[in-house]
Amino acid sequence: MRKYCILFVGIAFVFPMMVFGASNSISDHSNKLLSSFNESSFKDSINWSKKKTAAWFVDRFKIGAGFFAATTTTDIELGNSAGGPIGSKIDFEKDFGLEKNVQTFLANFQWRISRRWRMDFSYYQLNRSASKNLERTINFGDHTYNVNATVSSFFNNTIYRASFGYAILAKPTAELGLLIGAHTLQSSMGVGLTAGGAGVSYKDNFNFTAPLPDFGIWGGVALSKRLALNGEFDYLSIAAGDFKGEIVGYNASLSFKALKQLDLSLGYTGFNFTIDANTNNQNAHVGWGYNGPSLTVDFRFGRNNWNH
Hints:
Elements: H1 2-48, E1 52-53, E2 61-78, E3 90-91, H2 92-95, E4 101-112, E5 117-133, E6 138-140, E7 143-145, E8 150-170, E9 174-195, E10 202-222, E11 227-240, E12 243-257, E13 262-279, E14 282-301, E15 306-307
Parallel strand pairs: 1-15
Antiparallel strand pairs: 2-3, 2-4, 2-14, 4-5, 5-8, 6-7, 8-9, 9-10, 10-11, 11-12, 12-13, 13-14
C-alpha cells in the first residue's frame, strides 16, 4: 500500500510538469510559426506596394525655356467684306518681304499626374512686319494693290498649346503614349498702302482666333544615364460648316542631364496648318507653318511616387 501511495504522489508531481513542458513547447512552436507568417506577409505587402521605376527624365514637374529659330512659310488669300470671291494667293515672305527666318522665345511646362498620365503646356510668339514695293498686282480684302506700289504688311501669331497624354507603355528606360491636345492660335495680319499714286492710303486687316484640336503619339527613351531622346507627332483634319482645316505638328529632342535636376535639350520642332474659313462675311484661306531647331533649359522637380 505504501508503494502505491509513493507511485501516486510521483505521478501527481511529474504529470503536470510534463503537461506544462509540452504546452510551452507547443506555444513556442506556434509563436515561431506566427512570427514566420507575419514576416512573410509583411514582406509580401512590401512587394505589393513597391514603387514603379521610370526613366531618369520622368519627374513630377518640368519647366523649360529657351530659344527657337523658326523658318516660316505663309500663304494667304482673302476675299472682300461683301462676301465676294477670294483674292490673290499671296506669299507673304516673297510678295511682301516678311522675314522668312525668325528667332523667338519659347516656354513649356509638364505635369506628371502619375507614372502614366501627363499634361503639357507650351507658349511661343512669332511677330513679323515689313515694307516693300510690289512686283505684281495683288487683290487682298477690299482693295487692289498695284504693281510698284509701296505697301506695309504684318503677320503676328501667338500660340498656346495644351495636351493630355497617357503612356500605354511605361518601362524603366522607355515610354510610349497617346495624347489629345489643342493649339490655340491668335493671328492678326494686314496690308496697307503707304504711298499711293495720288497720295491715297488704305489698308486691309484680318484677325482670327482658332482653337485647333489634334491627336498624337509621344515617346521617350533613355539612351544612357545622362542622354535621352524624346519625340511627339500630332495630326488632325477637320471640316465643319464654314470651317475646314488640317494640322501637322512634330517635335524631336535630345536631352543631356547636366545636373541632377537640370537638363539641356537640343530639338527640332514643326507646326504646319491650313485653314479655309468665312469670318465676318470674308472668305479666307490661311496656310502657315514654322520649322526649325530649338535650344532649351529644363528644370525637373517635385515628389514622385516612382523610382529612377
